[in-house]
Design a protein that fits this description.
Length: 410
């Protein structure tokens, strides 16, 4: 292949407590299935301490633990390992052709991927209050890329874009009609991955996506379901913000809004403090008192920890209820998809979620469910509803969008 046709694309997935990066190389065509990353980097923050892990396709690895460091300084150190040290993947930063960003909330303005401009950044900042754990971190990533890589093209890909097809009956909240004109409606999130899962499910089932009714369960630190009919999102559990819907790692999911107004009135809790409680001190962490990590919840549950057991039971109850609601919207189901960290790795969560779906004839194959590989069907042979485990491919989807935009310039 002509080396001049190869395009190196760096993808950033920025969060409040983590920063993930992946470098891809794409030639004349971008395949459906992702190639191996040339380089992967990750930062996990715990207060002012950062754990940095890096590896490249040649087997080079590097791990750093640094303390008393700012977020920008840690991210700059991570990027520096792209072209310096044993785990480097490029010779100079000028080899990067484009940088893609996962942007959680695009607001009402952005439905499709766009080149990042000052106007785009201003618009993303304008809706950062709707996704406080994410949009500000994503803007920070854009600024650091500008500083380190200069005028490299940057592309924003929006998690809300896939859900633009949700009909008004599902998207509009039953408050004052003026909310609609104020941009208050269901946006939905995790759309990049839900869309990828729908496409891969059709290929795994050897069917056209236009014929399928799917429920995609994105279960990670953040959790959401999407009802997908004919390849389009028709409903989802997250809403105006990523706080609505299922119980999550540290987020409450849906609660009676009267609880919020009661606590603010009776206990004098400020809006800022309430936002922190619902986003960072609730969910699995809030109920268990142990962790927002499902792995630790499952371990404590096996040891007889009552609050961990309660946290798991609430999580599963709400997951089952959400699946039932999505099924009612679809009017049937061809396949149930599990994806993201918990969905891909926890056989216990998958088994518990499917336990009450026997009335559909749905049956899991216990051996397949206990395997650790992704992109497989774990339903029993005679189950009329298929159950798929699909690896989240958000980074690759973003890289492909960058490739398309850059190719269109030529």
């Amino acid at each position: 292949m002509d080396l001049a046709l190869l395009m190196k694309i760096l993808v950033l997935n920025s969060g409040s407590s983590s920063q993930k990066c992946c470098l891809y190389e794409i030639g004349e065509s971008a395949p459906e299935d992702p190639p191996a990353c040339l380089w992967e980097g990750r930062i996990e923050w715990n207060g002012d301490a950062a754990e940095i892990s890096i590896k490249n396709a040649k087997g080079g690895e590097r791990k750093d633990h640094i303390t008393s460091v700012s977020r920008p300084a840690a991210i700059e150190r991570l990027f520096g390992a792209l072209w310096e040290g044993d785990a480097r993947a490029i010779s100079t930063r000028s080899e990067i052709a484009a940088v893609g960003h996962r942007v959680v909330h695009g607001g009402p303005q952005f439905l499709e991927p766009v080149l990042v401009t000052p106007e785009v950044k201003a618009a993303v900042a304008g809706v950062s209050a709707f996704a406080p754990l994410h949009n500000r971190a994503e803007l920070e990533g854009m600024e650091i890329v500008e500083k380190l890589f200069g005028p490299v093209p940057q592309v924003a890909v929006f998690d809300t874009g896939f859900h633009r097809t949700i009909p008004p009956a599902a998207a509009v909240y039953p408050g004052p009609y003026e909310w609609i004109t104020d941009g208050i409606h269901r946006y939905g999130f995790h759309g990049i991955n839900h869309q990828c899962c729908a496409g891969l499910a059709a290929r795994l089932l050897h069917k056209d996506s236009s014929s399928l009714k799917l429920i995609s369960c994105h279960l990670g630190n953040g959790c959401s379901l999407a009802a997908i009919r004919g390849g389009q999102s028709v409903d989802t559990t997250m809403g105006f913000t990523p706080l609505e819907g299922l119980m999550m790692g540290t987020r409450s999911g849906s609660v009676d809004p009267g609880i919020v107004t009661y606590l603010m009135r009776q206990k004098g809790i400020s809006p800022e403090r309430m936002d922190e409680i619902l986003n960072k001190e609730s969910g699995l962490l809030g109920i268990s008192g142990i962790s927002g990590d499902m792995r630790q919840i499952l371990s404590a549950r096996r040891e007889g920890h009552d609050r961990a057991r309660l946290a798991f039971d609430i999580y599963i109850h709400r997951l089952r209820a959400g699946i039932g609601a999505m099924m009612g919207v679809l009017g049937g189901l061809d396949a149930l998809i599990f994806t993201a960290g918990v969905g891909e790795n926890s056989s216990e969560v998958r088994a518990a979620a499917c336990e009450n779906l026997g009335y559909l004839g749905l049956k899991l194959d216990p051996a397949n469910n206990s395997e650790s590989s992704s992109d497989r069907d774990i339903a029993a042979i005679d189950s009329p509803v298929r159950v798929l485990v699909i690896h989240a491919q958000e980074d690759w989807a973003i890289a492909r969008e960058c490739w398309k935009i850059e190719r269109s310039k030529g």
